[in-house]
């Protein structure tokens, strides 16, 4: 079974004009079988378990080659870390702005998105990417619990605010005359 997967991957690499190497097979196999959207560092750490001699440079270069040949997608998110998606089918992403989790979102209604002709001046669209930024369920619950704790802590240590308006007025009078 595993050999059949490797044959399929080798065939895919060859059909895209790429040399077949064990590193490319392992990295591509990892990306097409994970539901995560790992960073290059995560790919390196996970693939390193199967291939301890692999270098970070090989992982980064392989990701770049696979991306340039359309075999994987790069996802650039606001955290500044590029993430990778082995699913190149048309789909959108939901990105949590708190934990940076990426969730695939499949909705055919986005297939019809077009750039208005008066804006594109002959621009040829190669790919459409729709990204929704928000907060995932887990983070929303965590943030709500943190906010509740902060409110409770503030309530427990609130010092009554009492100032004498006459003292403030006197201070202002001195400062504005001086």
Question: How would you sum up this structure, described in words?
Answer:
By secondary structure, the chain is mainly alpha-helical. It has a single domain (2-177), classed as Winged helix-like DNA-binding domain superfamily/Winged helix DNA-binding domain (Arc Repressor Mutant, subunit A), CATH 1.10.10.10. A hairpin with a 5-residue loop joins strand 3 (92-96) and strand 4 (102-105). The longest helix is centred in the C-terminal third of the chain and has 20 residues, at 137-156. Helix 1 (2-15) packs across helix 2, helix 2 crosses helix 4 (56-68) and helix 3 (40-48) packs across helix 4. The N and C termini lie far apart (88 Å). The strands form two sheets. A three-stranded mixed β-sheet has the order 4-3-5, with no helix packed on it. Strands 1-2 form a two-stranded antiparallel sheet. Helix content is 48%, strand content 12%. It has helices at residues 2-15, 22-33, 40-48, 56-68, 117-120, 137-156, 165-177, and strands at 73-76, 82-85, 92-96, 102-105, 131-134.
List keywords for this structure.
single chain, 178 residues, Arc Repressor Mutant, subunit A, 7 helices, 48% helix, 12% strand, elongated
Q: Could you give me the name of the CATH homologous superfamily?
A: Winged helix-like DNA-binding domain superfamily/Winged helix DNA-binding domain
Strand order of the largest sheet: 4-3-5
Q: Note the quaternary state here.
A: single chain
Spell the H/E element sequence: HHHHEEEEHEHH
How much helical structure, as a percent, in the residues? 40-55%
- Overall, the morphology is elongated
Rg value: 27 Å
Q: Note poorly predicted spans.
A: none
């Amino acid at each position: 079974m595993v050999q059949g997967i490797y044959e399929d991957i080798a065939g895919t690499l060859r059909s895209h004009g790429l040399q077949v190497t064990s590193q490319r097979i392992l990295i591509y196999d990892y990306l097409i079988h994970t539901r995560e959207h790992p960073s290059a560092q995560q790919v390196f750490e996970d693939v390193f378990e199967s291939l301890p001699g692999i270098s970070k440079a090989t992982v980064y270069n392989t990701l770049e080659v696979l991306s340039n040949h359309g075999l994987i997608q790069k996802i650039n998110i606001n955290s500044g870390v590029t993430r990778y998606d082995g699913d190149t089918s048309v789909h959108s992403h939901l990105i949590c702005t708190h934990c940076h989790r990426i969730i695939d979102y499949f909705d055919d209604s986005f297939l019809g998105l077009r750039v208005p002709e008066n804006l594109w001046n002959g621009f040829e669209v190669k790919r459409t990417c729709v990204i929704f930024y928000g907060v995932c369920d887990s983070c929303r619950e965590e943030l709500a619990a943190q906010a509740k704790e902060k409110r409770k802590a503030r309530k427990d240590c609130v010092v009554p605010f009492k100032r004498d308006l006459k003292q403030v007025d006197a201070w202002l009078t001195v400062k504005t005359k001086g």
